[in-house]
Amino acid sequence: MENEEILTEEIIDPRITMLDAFFRIHDYLVQRASMPIRRLLMDSINWDDRLIAIKGGRGVGKTDFLLCRVKEIETEWKNMPEPERKKGQRRPRKLHKDIRPCLFISMNDFFFTEHSLLEVAAAFVHEGGKYLFIDQLFKYPNWSRELKRCYTKFKELHIIFCATPVMPIDEDNNDLKDIVKTYNLRGFSFREYLNLQTGLRLRAYTLEEIIQRHASISREICERVRPLNYFQAYLDHGYYPSYLESKSFEASLLKVMNSQLEVDVLMIKQIDVACLHKLRKLLYLLMKETPCALNISKLSEEIGLSRATIMNYIKYLKDSRLINLLYPENRNFPMKPTKVYMHNTNLAKMIFTRDIEPLDLYETNFYTAIHGAHKVNATDRSAMFIVDNKYYFDVREKASSRDTIRPTAVGELEIGRGNMIPLWLLGFLY
To answer: Cβ distance 327 to 335 under 8 Å?
Structure first.
């Protein structure tokens, strides 16, 4: 490993910087990148931070998200005027128009089997670069330590990287704690899916707005579009952006699921590959039953693993965003959850040996829509869920003739009334 005190000029070797090759790949990827709809997260990030992690499950569009941000920066950069040079001020090595502000690299490149991320960052900064975007970072040994070295050495460099859900970041990483800002990119919300399908630009609402004004909000939206005409299709395939380009959405999603098991769980968690079959069987058994209570003893017997190992594997499946675990208030892993859900309804419908009840899909969708930005727990009351420790919620398939005593998300309701909230409207939280 290079000496920590090594100077930038000493890191750079003109024979091995490969910046031209990296920029050729960069240009190819950026030109072809597309974000069919602007993700709400793009405007929620403080891009002035120097170290940013975009964390998200496989298949939700992290790479395209980064590439589209590169496009924005490069467009802004081209439109910026040359800074005026004050009298006596040293002329910059390069004019503004000649500087490449962004570089997108993937740690898939074989260059990194012999050379370091620090070398590339140094060469990029030496040429005036400002924003380094990194994909597939988990494949680089000692990635968090190297990120910290780059962050410490290059004070003007902004580093933005993709992170899988199982990568230790923030409080779980001593190298990055207190210096990295982490943002969560989820799959399409129903709002994003609906805007994409219709060309509308419907805005997002807070949970409080929806609870208090759901009737008027849903009525206003229904004057422009009929959401229920699109909702079932969203539950079937709308969460993952790959539905836009894949001829077989199921085959594409199956590939994503296997990558989550084989890479996010086995590789990053360093589990013996011989355990892959049992891990796959565990996921399959859960898919056949969810949403369901967790019977650890039964799973242990069917798979041939100890109860402790089953619980660890379930935690890995949750961390990789294949399943969700619903716990009572003030309880969490390693305690047994009240209920297990698939992470989203697209995954829930990937089991072809059962007919999923509509209410099961609606419960799963409720959890997926809410839990990204809110705390969702089971409750010992008659309600199904408690959100943020203050809102008790039920989920129903159809609206009843009488009003409900608490907020109730109704799957087959278009316009809200009383305490009955259209479930589709909870898809407008982001």
So the answer is: yes
Mark whether 309 and 417 lie in a shared domain. Answer: no
Q: Report pLDDT for 114.
A: 93
Q: Is 193 in the same domain as 134?
A: no
Find out whether 367 and 254 touch, Cβ atoms under 8 Å.
no
pLDDT digits (tens, 9 = 90+) for 118-170: 999 999 999 999 999 999 999 999 999 999 999 999 999 999 999 999 898 87
Model pTM score:
0.89
Mean pLDDT of the 53-69 span: 96
Amino acid at 281: K
pLDDT(422) > 80: yes
Q: Across-strand partners of 22?
A: none
Rounded Cα gap, residues 151 and 131, in angstroms: 12
The answer on 59 and 111 residing in a single domain is yes
Q: Provide the residue range defining the domain that includes 406.
A: 189-239+344-430
Whichever domain contains 290, its CATH number is 1.10.10
Q: Determine the Cα–Cα distance for residues 57 and 155; give it in Å rounded to an integer.
A: 30
CB atoms within 10 A of CB 64: 17
Q: What tokens appear for 106 in the block?
A: 């993937």
- Residue 332 within any structural domain of the chain: no
| Residue 339 within a domain | no
